[in-house]
Structures are given as structure tokens and as C-alpha cells.
Design a protein that fits this description.
single chain, alpha+beta, Thrombin, subunit H, six-stranded antiparallel barrel, six-stranded antiparallel β-barrel, 13 strands, digestion, Peptidase_S1, hydrolase, Peptidase_S1_PA, disulfide bond
């Protein structure tokens, strides 16, 4: 009897303590130029805070929760290096545009545009990625990349990491999450899962999910880290019209 109550109490406590992580665990080190669209978003102290993705010669995408409450001068992007501590070109921002319907509580429409102060110089290490035009179905193989922590509670990775994941339909994604978090899987979300010990972690927010060579998602939230729950992304195709209208791309 006491053992049964202890297990239930522990489960309820774990559920109550679930936190949404801005969050690659169990990945591989990327090669130079392998993901030329991936950028490191830095604060005024040059600390990596989130990922961002190049979509044009003046524009990047990231998660809105990475930029909310920040002024453009407080952030910059480092492009063209897989080493977070060395190399790359730094770009300041002239403008941050969060999605007008971004909800900080539910993380719906968790997407933001970053306009650089001057034109990005493209080369073999710095290239934009095309935005997906269609909704990716379940059971597709995708790739995620980022400088997030490689285990819960650790520092962000020095070298860019990547791994393959499988997409889930949203209903399965909701069922795999707790009752507390199911409402945060929106129609404009896309989910992935690999296995326990593989997934996104702190510092991966705003980084790319690539499917069939196109930008399908931006890391939004998850239960930290690689704990057996699906990772949740903002589905970029859901916001394609807003992105194109706002940027003129």
C-alpha cells in the first residue's frame, strides 16, 4: 500500500514539475558547411541563447520566445561557423518582428523574424534555406541541428550538433505528453521523436528542423531533456504567408 502511494505521489510530483524547455542530446558533430543556414543567436555578453535560421540576405527566423522583451540592439547572429567559440561573421539586427499572435503562455505562433542591419554575405558556409510549402506528414525522417546542451543541466555545446528524427502526427504527439502540456501542441505545431536519450535541449530553441531539404520547423519547447517525450516545433509552413508578406521574399 505505501509503495503504491509513493509511486503515485512521485508521478504527480513529476507531472507538476514538468517545465517547458527552450531547448541536442545524443547527436553527432556537424561538419563545416553542413548546415550553412544555421546561426547562433547571442546576447550582449556574447552568450549563445538560441538558434536562428537564415532565409534571405537580410532575414533570419527564430522562436518568438527567444526575442520577446528584447530590443534589436540586444541580440546579434553569428553565421558561418560550427564552433560556438571561434570563427564566423557577426551581424547586428535592425529589427525584430514577433508574430502578432504569439502567446507567451501557450507558445502558439512561436516564431519571429530578425532583420539584419546590413546585407548578409553568402558563401559556402553561409546560405539561406527554403521554407517548406506543404505540411509534412507523420513518419517522415528529418534532421535537427543546434548548439543546445548535450544533457540536462549541462552547458550548451561548443560544436554544432545534429541528429535524425521522425515526425509524428499531432494527435499522437498530444497523447504522448501529459495532460498539462497537450494543450500546447497546436495545429500549427509539428512534433518529432527519436528515442529516450536523443532530442533537443536548452539552447536549441529557434533552431532548424529540416525535412526534404526545406525548413519545416523551429524548435519551440519540450520536456527537458530527451526524456522520452516528443519535441515540439513551430511548423513554418503554417506561417509561410506571414513570413513572405512581412519580408517581401
Amino acid at each position: 500500500m505505501f509503495r503504491y502511494l509513493l509511486i503515485v505521489g512521485f508521478a504527480c510530483s513529476a507531472l507538476a514539475d514538468e517545465t517547458l524547455s527552450g531547448r541536442i542530446v545524443g547527436g553527432l558533430q556537424a561538419g563545416g558547411g553542413q548546415f550553412p543556414f544555421q546561426a547562433s543567436l547571442r546576447n550582449l555578453r556574447n552568450v549563445h541563447t538560441c538558434g536562428a535560421v537564415i532565409i534571405g540576405d537580410r532575414w533570419l527566423l527564430t522562436a518568438a520566445h527567444c526575442t520577446i522583451g528584447r530590443q534589436a540592439y540586444e541580440l546579434r547572429a553569428v553565421l558561418g561557423s560550427i564552433d560556438r567559440t571561434n570563427g564566423g561573421e557577426s551581424y547586428n539586427f535592425a529589427q525584430i518582428i514577433e508574430h502578432p499572435d504569439f502567446n507567451q503562455v501557450t507558445l502558439e505562433n512561436d516564431i519571429a523574424l530578425l532583420r539584419t542591419a546590413y546585407k548578409i554575405e553568402m558563401n559556402s558556409m553561409v546560405q539561406p534555406i527554403r521554407i517548406s510549402e506543404t505540411f509534412t506528414s507523420a513518419a517522415e525522417i528529418g534532421t535537427i541541428c543546434g548548439w543546445g546542451a548535450t544533457s540536462y543541466g549541462s552547458m550548451t555545446s561548443v560544436m554544432l550538433q545534429y541528429m535524425e528524427v521522425r515526425t509524428l502526427n499531432n494527435e499522437e504527439c498530444r497523447l504522448r505528453h501529459s495532460l498539462l502540456n497537450r494543450s500546447k501542441v497546436h495545429d500549427s505545431s509539428i512534433c518529432t521523436y527519436s528515442r529516450i536519450g536523443q532530442g533537443t535541449c536548452m539552447g536549441d530553441s529557434g533552431s532548424a528542423l529540416i525535412v526534404n531539404g526545406a525548413l519545416e520547423g523551429l524548435v519551440s519547447w519540450g520536456v527537458p531533456c530527451a526524456a522520452g517525450m516528443p519535441d515540439v516545433y513551430t511548423r513554418v509552413a503554417s506561417h509561410r504567408a506571414w513570413v513572405l508578406r512581412t519580408t517581401g521574399l
